[in-house]
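Might you be able to check the backbone structure tokens below? Thank you kindly.
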Amino acid sequence: MSLRHRQRPVFKRLVMANHTHTWWHNTTPLPCSGKLFIFHASIPTAEAPGKLKNRDDKKLVSTDKEKTLFHPVKGMYEQLSKDCVAQGCSVDLFLFSSQYLDIATMGDVPAHTGGAVYKYSNFQVETDGEHFLRDLRKDVEKPIGFDAIMRVRTSTGFRATDFFGGVYMNNTTDVELAAVDCDHAITVELKHDDTLSEETGAFMQCALLYTTAGGQRRLRVHNLSLNCSSQLMELFKSCETDSLINFFAKTAYRAILKQPLKSVREILVNQTAHMLACYRKNCASPSAASQVGGPLTSLSNTRNCNVLPELDSPQSRKVRAIISSLMQQRPNSMKLQIVRSKDKLEVLFRQFLVEDKGLYGGASYMDFLCYVHREIRTLLI
């Protein structure tokens, strides 16, 4: 079955202001889909479609009902997600409120349309203005495809069973994406349910039908040939850590809608311990324990601002080059805040230094390593 070609629909626009929602329709079909940039300064409270209320119940935190806080409210926003996907319309949400926002509900639309959520807590033009402009500028300029349909095909022995990302699915084979760009990844879970041949290997094809920003309908096909091996050492050598972390993060994100956060953390730790125990048992040679850690890098004394001074020195040029490179690599820009010793903001800075115990009852890094090590030893007994 080939990927279908959809007729260009009438394009619907949505504008969201502080307390009201305004809708209007174009009566003339547009040649291509589009992208919405929505700017919000407060939770929608007017008596109109999309009205939300404060659901922030502190009593539910760390209980079995905490997961209800992460569930989006059913109704208007859920239908809006479906409508946007059907029309190839991506939604980006920029939030500036310092008060409660039901991001679980409002962010559900960007999550299913290949968009993004940008939140600027306690927004101040003087300190956050450039941060916001960098995000907006990069979002507008990056290449993007609209109204996409993706299908993954595999050779005999394994098959695609689940998909994670800004996708919507009406069936088990066609992955619908309102938009796709360089900052979003689609994670595919493959189930191995038959014997794979080490001689012929395994084959995978990913076909993506999409519309360019200029309105051209294009088909992009990726073919991948995979080697098969019964040796675990070869498996661990070929393993991509980034892909694993991406997969575990997305499965955990989905799991918190059904399980308490404590259970999700335990599952992640157990999965990690099992993988490391398998490596230790079948692949690693005995070795002495090594210490993990290193000294913290101290901040240089610079003036209470969010822009590095351009000094004519090797150290200044090197630091600015590092920060510039990080800004370009990340999909979202990072707010730069320079804090010097004995500054007023040093107290705030210290709150982010966690050594003994983590936030919300989590373990420190060294405690976490020791815990995983004990779990591995238990599994090996």
Notes: Residues 4-29, 288-303 have pLDDT under 50 and may be disordered. The longest helix spans residues 261-282. The CA atoms of residues 138 and 328 lie 9 Å apart. The chain is about 30% helix and 20% strand.
